[in-house]
Specification:
mainly alpha, 2 domains, two-stranded antiparallel ribbon, 10 helices, 46% helix, Cytochrome P450, Cyt_P450_CS
Length: 266
């Protein structure tokens, strides 16, 4: 796929170069000028463009980046979807708001319209539901940081050169940032409270220049899948949160399967 797309880009560049030469020579007027506008490039095209500019960025490097973007996030994204469904299934009033939002976007129960980017942008409440699920169950519960200088935390000196693990599962439960932290309340991400919240109070995708490369893609994927399910089904979680035991692994997952009931919406 990479080699095939590379050939296509090279062919496109060659055609564009020929057209620009013709236009400059006055032989033919090409387009209406809109082609000169900057366009947002696809992920693979962006990597291939860098490869064509910089020979040190090899096709193998591209393959590794694409693998990371598309496949390394499979477990994290699937668990984020599972936890969101579980929490929505425990909260009928929240699920009702999701249904109302989706019905308003797609024109009622049972609509089979294709989801596009404009639809995804309108799913404000569903996005808040996902973020609140990620607050309670961040897909990756901890991130590491290597200290370049001494840090004093609560009177203790953490020396330069050590690696600190930041436990996001607990960071997201700080009652000063999230009152009643164990309550699933998507409105936390819709009201004005998030405007005054510390920027690192909610970091399910880590933060800084080494944050998750696929976070925007993950949210779009999660919204698409959840919207597809909730448009057609009413869901009910068969086990309370207190019953679910979490497995201590790299990705937060339940020790036993999450049991749910799906009822078609009529």
């Amino acid at each position: 796929v990479i080699k095939e797309r590379k050939r296509e880009i090279l062919d496109e560049k060659s055609i564009n170069k020929d057209e620009k030469t013709m236009a400059n020579n006055g032989d033919e007027e090409v387009g209406d000028g809109s082609c000169d506008l900057r366009r947002r490039m696809a992920f693979l095209d962006s990597l291939l463009s860098e490869h064509l500019r910089n020979s040190e960025f090899t096709e193998e490097d591209i393959r590794e980046e694409v693998d990371t973007f598309m496949f390394e996030g499979h477990d994290t994204t699937s668990m984020a979807i599972s936890w969101t469904l579980h929490l929505i299934g425990l909260s009928p009033h929240i699920q009702r708001k999701c249904h109302e939002e989706l019905d308003a976007i797609f024109g009622g129960t049972g609509s089979d319209g294709v989801i596009n980017m404009n639809d995804l942008r309108e799913m404000k409440y569903l996005e808040a539901c996902i973020k609140e699920a990620l607050r309670l169950f961040p897909s990756v519960p901890f991130v590491g940081r290597h200290l370049n200088e001494d840090n004093i935390i609560n009177g203790y000196t953490v020396p330069k050169g050590v690696t600190c693990l930041i436990f996001l599962y607990q960071v997201h439960r700080d009652p000063q940032c999230f009152p009643q932290p164990e309550v699933y309340r998507p409105e936390r991400f819709l009201d004005n409270s998030h405007m005054t919240r510390h920027p690192f109070a909610f970091v399910p995708f880590s933060a800084g220049p080494r944050n998750c490369i696929g976070q925007k893609f993950a949210l779009l994927e999660e919204k698409t899948i959840l919207a597809t399910i909730l448009r057609h089904y009413t869901i009910k979680s068969l086990d309370h949160r207190d019953v679910i035991k979490i497995a201590p692994e790299l990705v937060i997952r339940p020790k036993t399967p999450i049991r749910m009931q799906f009822t078609p919406r009529i």
